[in-house]
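User: quick one
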Amino acid sequence: MSKPEEPIRVTYEFALEAGAESETNARRTARAMAIEQSVEVPEGCFPEEFERSVVGQAEDVERVDGVLWRATISYSAALVGEELGQILNVLFGNLSMMSGVRVVEVEWPATLPASLGGPRFGIEGLRELCGAGERRPLLCTSVKPVGHSSAELAERCRQFALGGLDILKDDHSLANQAWAPFAERVERCQAAVEQANRESGGSTQYFPHLTGPLEELGERVEWIRSHGCRGVLVTPLTLGLDTVRWLARRSDLGLAVFGHPSFAGALYQGDHGFTAEIWLGQILRLIGCDGVIYPNTGGRFPISEETCLRVNERLRGPLGVCKPSFPVMGGGIHAERLGHWIDLYGADTIFLLGSSLYAQGDLRRASETLVAALAQSQL
Amino acid sequence: MSKPEEPIRVTYEFALEAGAESETNARRTARAMAIEQSVEVPEGCFPEEFERSVVGQAEDVERVDGVLWRATISYSAALVGEELGQILNVLFGNLSMMSGVRVVEVEWPATLPASLGGPRFGIEGLRELCGAGERRPLLCTSVKPVGHSSAELAERCRQFALGGLDILKDDHSLANQAWAPFAERVERCQAAVEQANRESGGSTQYFPHLTGPLEELGERVEWIRSHGCRGVLVTPLTLGLDTVRWLARRSDLGLAVFGHPSFAGALYQGDHGFTAEIWLGQILRLIGCDGVIYPNTGGRFPISEETCLRVNERLRGPLGVCKPSFPVMGGGIHAERLGHWIDLYGADTIFLLGSSLYAQGDLRRASETLVAALAQSQL
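Assistant: Done. Structure below.
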């Protein structure tokens, strides 16, 4: 190779058993983790020269607090390669089968953001799509509930669009059920949004839920695109993380990607897995999500304000060549408190309101009230 | 619809806050979960008739122990549909963002195993592939470590095949690294195994690791198949759960599928996610894994003997039209204790030995010793 490539450095937090929380044990654990995630054979079962080029290297090992330790393991670029599967495998593959191990920091070599690609639109691109050039938050809602016909969902789209919301995304429970089959729903909802935009002069976007199956994926994205949609909702863990990356890289489609956290909570809640800011703020951005949906603090799901701020910082901060992604904060938001959340999270945020709009009944008026609250907050 | 379709019934365990562990609160929580996983709008924001056909119905609610409760929620066939993404979404999608919620039982309607398909080969089909018609356990190893050239890995394959092992699977760390690129590795390893089979009269199978990327998936499976391999290793959570289902359904390929648990531990360890027997024993079987690899008790990963027995029971027991899958138990197994594990797990088991073979150095002899130990145990 013509130039030495940088390793990927991953910092893990892990708990030692009480009574065995010595530095010697912490170093031994870090070494075992480094071997587990690379050669996965016992000491002595690999050539000595692998030590430099193949085996993960435990670098900094330090106590966090009590039985909790932190170790940084460096994996060579040659080991990690550029395929998403192996990147994830190295980060947390076999360690997932331990308990109490968490990826708390990743130092990405410049090659990885470049090869994975990141968001196609990013914050600026999504603003343009929505005709929101000025620096203000965007407003989003979910088209739901499942059980309604395509015509009924389309009518809801119409009301939200006339009310001036920026993005209407399918609820993640809308797949291909008989009540509102995928193709019919996309056609009707998109037509309703376009008609409303013509009436109002607005630029509301409708992002349908792309669920697979893989056999029909190509056909479905063509359907979405040919009917004029400019973005989709995906659930990365169930649709496939690599499928999302593939979708974001399809330059011929030019579809913006909203990632939904369904199923992902198991990876970023608790003391085993990833921190929320690494999973939501870095991994989902790297694979191409222009917007990352996750629950706001104070709603139905347990998440702290500090965690939300950290996730947002990662979504928007430097990450190699990757464009910044929009945090899409769902739940726990009412129009009357919008100013508070904008002060807290800033203008480069999408606010996703569902329940608080639906509870008002008149969806157009509820949307208008929200848009007015946003305008008021920007004065 | 001409006939009423059966619902899917999911039993969850969840903890209530200490001091609030009343039956009233448990029923309220179960109702909130049922709404979260279906309509996801507040009470009163859906038509009353949805109650019967769309909204999840909390049925049995009972205390397990202390603050721990159990509730069975019934979701209509119309809500769940037949797409994998929505099935997973209903099982655990938004609940993943709670904490301390676990799927402990699923009652599958007959339609779902039928539409997902399950294993193509199953236990009997894999036996035939390996020329192991008689009822005995199969022996498997991992081709590794990463860092070796394709030629070196192929030589290991040759030794293992001459030694008489049934299945050689790539280590899950073998992706497309420069040391042993995918296409070259598959070609060399498969050729080495075929040559060894000709010399020995054996039927050893080599299952390479299929990692994506999605753009190259079709090309890679064609390469694998055209070089004579009859199975692949996949990592469902990173390759894509739906991609695995798609692969297993490709009748033109006829590739057996071994599922690797990398990354999956976060879903089945601990008190949030799925029990191991539901995730490993049912979900992976439903999507088409003929063999499900997971860590045996007593090895490097924490898992109890009882859990292993429960996983195996689910892999082999009734599941609609699905064929039974092989448990592929890795780690913690040495030749001298093989008889013990066979007594415990039975003949319909694949034993995956890695470290204990590699530590012996002479891979052919280590394999022969293992095969002899198996023969001895069958007398």
